[in-house]
Amino acid sequence: MKTSAQLEAMLREIDHKSYPAYKALKGAYSFGSYTLSIDHVQGDPFASPSRLTIHISSESSGFSPELWKTPARRIAFCDFILRRFARSVEAYSFKAKGSGKSGALFCTRPGQEVLERTACTVEKNTLLVRFEAGFPANGRTINSRELGRILFDYLPKCVSQSLLYKNTDQKALKSAVELYEDQEAVREALEPMGLAAFVADGAVLPRMSGVSNRPMKDATAFFSPDSLRLSIPLPHRGTISGMGIRKGVTLITGGGYHGKSTLLKALEAGVYNHIPGDGREFVITDATAVKLRAEEGRIVKKVDISPFINHLPGGRDTSCFSTEDASGSTSQAAGVMEGLEAGTGLFLIDEDTCATNFMVRDELMKRVIAPDKEPITPFIRRIRPLFEQLSVSTILVVGSSGAYFNAADCVIQMDCYRALDITERAKKEAALFFPEKESAEPFPQASVNRPLAFSETRRDAGRPVKIRTQGRDGFLFDKTLVDLRYVEQLADEEQCRALGYILLWLKSRPAGGTMAEVLSRLYEKLRKEGLSSIASLECPPFMAMPRLQEIFACVNRCRL
Known about the structure:
Shape: globular
Distance between the termini: 43 Å
CATH topology of the largest domain: Rossmann fold
Structural class: alpha+beta
Largest sheet: 7 strands, mixed
Number of domains: 3
CATH architecture of the largest domain: 3-Layer(aba) Sandwich
Number of helices: 14
CATH class of the largest domain: Alpha Beta
Strand content: 15-25%
Number of strands: 28
């Protein structure tokens, strides 16, 4: 390892040389209390910025290893540190001047969710923080004096401000770690209490706007109906009370703009833990929950959709169904079966984003169109068997059709963002309006054990695959778009980037089993070894951990 003095000497030596001379800086340098590693040097000042890593031991930082002794504590600790470091770095971005991206300082800026990320990790009691810096130049001529300002002036201040325990808001750090442990305690309590989800009293569910995930100011706080309220003991903050949504079939209903979809959105996001002040800190949902919706135009690959769609015209086989351009009902049928394959225990559905003919079929339509002419078995006839046979619950938002009231175990009405338990009244009215219940049939035996296979793609030998994210909407795998717009539980662009590298890792190795077997093994590897285990160990890109369900969703929607 070289010293910081040697780095200064190298900067003086390459000043005013052509930009590629910066490549000589690659390596690790001791700055006394920490090590700076220059992992990747950009090709020119207009290219993606250079990647750097700070390594600081627990002895130098002052942080106790107790803060990362469990996976939960480590994730919460790294998230807290990363947010502080990102704020420090942002204050110095572009203060060093030059052409193109000269002087830019970039670091992951996490959102409301607490996710495991490659931007900040702990390895052998050493804290690693990764960031990007635009190495300064005038035109394409090196301006190493400006880079010296970044490395020897700005960066030490960032380290001091955010990576030393003595300069940390210790109370806030302790609170963040304990909150994450309390959230995990609620999550672990769901199964033994027979719950699909929990929404704490006092939670703030509405968001500031369609483009901001922060809590809405002056929003009506959520409080549970007395009949659904229960309490859960927590390791740090005592006992918490709120609405327990039990396993089974739960309907969320009410008038327009009264908070139905807002509650469902909070439950969708409840598969992740959230930061203090988010408002949804204790909205906790079954971690395997899948948001189900129609996705017209998506690809479907060898999925057995026969439990929902059968005897298509022309005798087309639906037990191994493929299409490049699915209809709304076909895509939703595939979504159910893919969700089962991914191991979900809960479907989250909003009728507004569903294919109507997949969800219900009224009595008049049954009379006009004979049953043998309709290949679709609607979801209403499968919703009870899904739970009773396969232990898969459903939380469904309905506002225009009461057909599901008879099938429901619980009906929650949202009235001006207040939750009311109207199960008894809804069931009574449904019994009068629908004297004959919709017949529920046993869920058919269906195959959810597909092989994992990719098509052969032509590309230049030796040329690395480029993965370019498009926000949370998906990513380009070289020139192939993987469209994830309707995978609504993706919370961060860095999860999309991780999915791109997961796909690259999968394509470069023989499958060796069914899709469920291969992806489950891979997910276990990621949990044990981290996301950097599937990317360059020397210079992993900024990635955030997706759930197993999003990995399945990505593989199912890629056209490779």
